[in-house]
Amino acid sequence: MGSRTCDLVGKVHPAHQFDLDALFRYASANVQSFPLSPTKFTVSQFGHGHSNPTFLLEVGSDSSVKRYVLRKKPPGKLLESAHAVEREFRVLHALGTHTLVPVPKVFCLCTDSSVIGTPFYIMEYLEGRIFLDPKLPGVAPSRRKVIYQATAKALASLHSADVDAVGLGKYGRRDNYCKRQVERWAKQYLAATGGSESERNPKMLELIDWLRQHIPFEDSSGAAAGLVHGDFRIDNLVFHPIKDRVIGILDWELSTLGNQMCDVACSCLPYIVDIDPDNVGQSEGFELTSIPEGIPSLAEYLADYCSASGKPWPVAGWTFYVAFTLFRAASIFAGIHSRWIMGNASSGERARNVGKKANILVDAAWLFIERKSLLPQHAPSDTIAQDNLQKFGIDHKDQGLSLESGKFVPNMKVQELRVRLIKFMEDHIYPMENEFYKLAQSTMRWTIHPEEEKLKELAKREGLWNLWIPFDSAARARKLILDGRYVASTDKASDRLLGAALSNLEYGYLCEIMGRSVWAPQVFNCGAPDTGNMEVLLRYGNEEQMKEWLIPLLDGKIRSGFAMTEPQVASSDATNIECSIRRHPP
């Protein structure tokens, strides 16, 4: 079973103790709703992990306690650019404020080392479960699959964040990420083992050379770069206390902008090697022997990620990404061992043997390189989908699909619409949700918010209007609309009223985006029951009905409803409708 977050704490390590009174004064002045006159204020330390020291703050009284989490830099001399809590705070604040990526809320950042000895920040405490063992012992097999699917979905959510829209466009360099990362971690390894040549593993130096020679192609402009977590593992996720969904992604110390496939490889390491620093062995991972019942295979897990993120199947370059991830982990472990020698490792005595275990990861990297890859050429779900389409004589190209490395992906037209739709949601829909909710809860809830009408016009101008219309349904009405009798005969009028001529499958990629906000469908004129009523008119309406009802509905000038009465039958079959109209006397 997963450990509750508060079960992972213990006494503060002597090397990490600090002035509690100074911390209390700072928190009282800078954390909103922080109890000002508590009878209880205790600090304990989370023992899991080897990165920035992390502490649980409990403040209040015996009957009411509030919990917070504090992350700080370790004391003493640190490797260059390591343990930047300032960057952690920045990315958490941006994601928590502007996206749906599951992260804890941050309250304040203190860069004044005089308060408790190093910079730190305070964030909310998430009550939930952390699964320290990726094999998920004690978890029912049926739930293991759901947990892994939730992990893949959380990673896809992180990778879908528009860094420019949320203020992270300059969070890191975008160009040549893999090349720079290899050099950075090679430098870190040399610095961590600089005290003794005997501590440097010759195989590690050879691995550095291999990685330099096999860096995958990266656009020098960095246009394809996105947000990278840097250490995305299942034990860095907080799951809901009872539901198998991720409520928080933790430990953003290594986050930056770059090649997101490195994150994907990191999340897959449990399939390759056991990297628990307390239990690293020479096992090649449970993918190669036996997978605990319920846990998906490596290919199935990757297929879930690709489906949720829209990324192509990552068989190209997979050997590099896995070898690089093992190399980076080995470099990090060497740094932990170095900090243990200096007496400031955040995990205390647990770091004693990590230096030796770094060498095991190097061996694992070479084993993987010799094996080349564990991935099939095609995603399992894609192969099934392609076989089914062929079975029924359907050409995937007719469904708006293309094949990239064996994976079905939307064509360029749909991808471009998807990018524009995501940007519209982040720029205009999400910022207005609170205002729309306020109106819905007020006595004016049956009125239309003025801003909604403005957004509708903007959606029309940007070609994001009536995207739901199937191309075959639109064909019947096109002549009526374009012949000039009811709507000006222009290409813009056609685009505005009859959508983008998508298939239902193509529209599904856009529905996923609009479904992230309850208000979005009506802003894009894609909400029920209007869509269903419009399609009935598009397919079966006569010219008079289309003129009177369809055109105003397509243009968003009126709304519609769907009423059904069944006095004689209990059914939701619309053909069973029986109704009558009677005029009441005045």
TrEMBL record:
SUPFAM superfamilies: Acyl-CoA dehydrogenase NM domain-like (SSF56645), Protein kinase-like (PK-like) (SSF56112). It holds the Pfam family APH. Residues 42-270 form the Aminoglycoside phosphotransferase domain. This is Aminoglycoside phosphotransferase domain-containing protein. It comes from Ilex paraguariensis (yerba mate).
